[in-house]
Amino acid sequence: MWPKLKPRSWQWRGILISAPSVAALVIGVHTAGLFQLLEWMALDSFFRWRPLEAPDPRIVVVTIDEADITYAGQWPIPDAVLAQLLENLNSYRPRAIGMDLYRDLPVPPGHDRLVEVLEAMPNLIGVEKVAGDRVGPPAILAEQGQVGLADLVLDADGKVRRGLLSVKPDDGETKLGLATRVSLMYLEAEGIALELADPEKMHLKLGKALFVPFAENDGSYVRADAGGYQILLNYRGPQTNFTTVSMTDILEKRADPEILRDRLVLIGATGQSLNDLFFTPYTNSLWGVPKRMPGVVIHANLASQILAGALDGRPFLQVWNDPAEWLWTLAWSFVGASGGWGFLQSNCFKNNLFFRGVVLGGGILVGCAIAVGSSYFAFLHSWWIPTVPPVLALSGSAIAIAGYHSRTLQRQSDRRLAKFLEAMPIAVAVLDRDGKPYYANQTAQALLGKGAIAHVTIEQLSEFYNYYRAGTDTLYPWNELPIVRALYGESIAAEDIEIRTDDRVTPISAMGMPIFDEDNQVAYALVTFQDITERRQAEAEREQFTKELFDLNQNLEKALDAELELTDAYGRFVPHQFLYFLGYESITDVKLGEAVQKEMSILFTDIRNFTTLSESMNPEDNFKFINAFLSRMEPAIAENNGFIDKYIGDAIMALFSGSADESVRAAISMLQRLQEYNLTRGRPGRPKIQIGIGINTGSLMLGTVGGSNRMDGTVIGDAVNLAARIESLTKDYGVALLISNQTFVALDNPSEYHVRLIDRVRVKGKSQLVTVYEVFDADAPDIKQGKLETKTIFEQALLLYNLGSYLEAAHLFQNCLNVNHQDNVARIYLKRCHCAESQSSVS
């Protein structure tokens, strides 16, 4: 049996390795809880996609909104109005009434009347709060044992997805939730009572319903708080899915008796201003501001779930155990690996890699859609099964098998290339795409004295193989070797190389050329070379003649070099670009007061807390530190076609006359170089440093200022002042790089950078608001990834903040901090929201 299976298993080894490996990785990440938020989002989407059920005819919600508060004259509504509301409502003869209103303190007038009404209503359940800041129940209802819990269970993202049936506080007395109390009261009239089905597992039976308590790892939850007796909420729908009657209609006795008689009635606040609102799966939508659900409607959903389960057998949400979820993920991983391998082994689009990649990507998307559809189909049948792990397992295994297939083809290509190169009559050596010696034929090994050694890096090629500059004792620069130049896509020849071994010096002529793969990327760098000893002997005479000519011209070259050195010396104090803009080649030609108007990008940077840092150093160390810092920053500016206008102590002012992109790229490069510099710091006496960079783009005047004995080049203009102000704002927001709206608009392609809007501020000296953006490409990888993940949430929160919706904005800013606790800007805005909300409450 095994001899027959072995060839087939070897043929499918890629699938047998890739699928379980990817599945194990995905399962590990899922078990760690990193997919929990995504799974919640998928569950929320399933609730919104699911067709709405018919309203529950057994439940009526008495709503209290802004119009009802106006009718009552105040909030909380007076005890006299509440007493009248309950008395009128009870006259309609409902079976059970749940009052989701805190009434631990009197609200005059009419408190004595309210106590009489509460005492006379055995079918009424009041509420108390036991979690967090406790709120007591109405005293008379507590004495009569007619109290339920108003507490709701919130997930980490602030949404309600679980229902609380009961809790057992520290005093040891089990307390039932509001929905549980009124549901049991309603079912008591149907002759249905709660039974203990399994004492060990705490399974409860109520009519046709079987209650299984929520466990901390049920579904996609990971180490959730499972305190009390919780169940997963199988929502019937939003407020529109329940029969509602306003408080005013009850007080005016305009309600239809038929919709209230023998019903379960819940009374609660639904107005936006009353703030008894919570995030639920129905909160998010593709358009508009998120809408929250009143707490009384959440209790109505839980009550409906209990009644429908007990009377109609409506199923509760069920989950798989861990082994079943793992098997589900593994199966989809095999689907992705098998499908990808089967397609890549076929002849479809074999000669068109673009369409081949498009079809493979499309197949992955279709497979992911089927996986999501399977989870949604299971949800329609009341099963909550994983959605994210199957999608990632399928796509990950398909991508992994594509990589494996590519490596297989590469190995086959390598074998064919080796046969071809060995047959060539001249010396041949090959580097792979990583710059490692890959191959040398027999002729090459004879000339080099050694073969291809894989651990040698391209920087070590000259030293390891004894490549010397011809006629010198200097190793040949590795980056000028033809084989290295070929690695970067160039075809180049060289005849100034010598190979030196113990017994001979061999001059060679070398030709390097790249070998490209199907994607037009360099796959190998190939060099051919041969011994040119005889040719060198013939050239020696010509070299002697050339030397004589060189001696004749040496004096002239020295004079030219001296002039160039003088020009370079001037350029270290007055940038050549500055002279160029004024129309001069030499600083000696410049006159005082000459100026020209230019459109430029201005960059300011400054070391944070430099004063404190400098106080710990003597003057000599101060200058050494500043020069070490500035010498690392200057190349980043020059490499991006900018020039430094002036040094201001530890600060730099640089100008860019090209595109605004050059200034942004220079700033990113400066921050990256600073990270490298900080690797050498961080010990006592050498603390790590931080800088802030501000960039603005606009019109300025560039020219000379001073007097008859001393003049200097400078730039003047409102654009320069604004750049300096923007740099100072980096301290206020705790970010490294800010750009103005003028710079953002001037970028050739803003999508190349990671940018987010920060604020519209009024800077010193400007009457109009200035829009500033943060560029966070150079942030630490974890901070950068956090900002990318929360960019949409942050921008939505910023919009809500500017619209004055401080509470909603604060929630979204808090979500940003939950993902990325190092987001200083989100923390600043969260504090602003709290201050604004506090001021609004006081006013």
Question: Secondary-structure blueprint of this entry?
Answer:
Elements: H1 2-11, H2 13-31, H3 36-49, E1 59-64, H4 66-72, H5 79-91, E2 96-100, H6 111-119, E3 124-128, H7 139-143, E4 147-149, E5 162-167, E6 175-176, H8 178-188, E7 194-198, E8 203-206, E9 209-211, E10 229-232, E11 243-246, H9 247-251, H10 257-260, E12 264-269, E13 277-278, E14 293-294, H11 295-312, E15 318-319, H12 322-345, H13 353-380, E16 383-384, H14 388-422, E17 427-432, E18 437-440, H15 442-448, H16 461-465, E19 467-469, H17 482-487, E20 492-500, E21 505-516, E22 522-531, H18 533-573, H19 576-582, E23 595-607, H20 610-615, H21 619-638, E24 642-648, E25 651-656, H22 660-678, E26 691-706, E27 711-716, H23 718-733, E28 737-740, H24 741-746, E29 755-761, E30 770-775, H25 781-789, H26 791-802, H27 806-819, H28 824-842
Parallel strand pairs: 1-11, 1-12, 2-3, 2-12, 3-4, 15-16, 26-28
Antiparallel strand pairs: 5-6, 5-10, 7-8, 8-9, 13-14, 17-18, 17-22, 19-20, 20-21, 21-22, 23-25, 23-26, 24-25, 26-27, 28-30, 29-30
Helix pairs in contact: 2-12, 2-14, 5-6, 8-11, 12-13, 12-14, 13-14, 21-22, 25-26, 26-27, 27-28
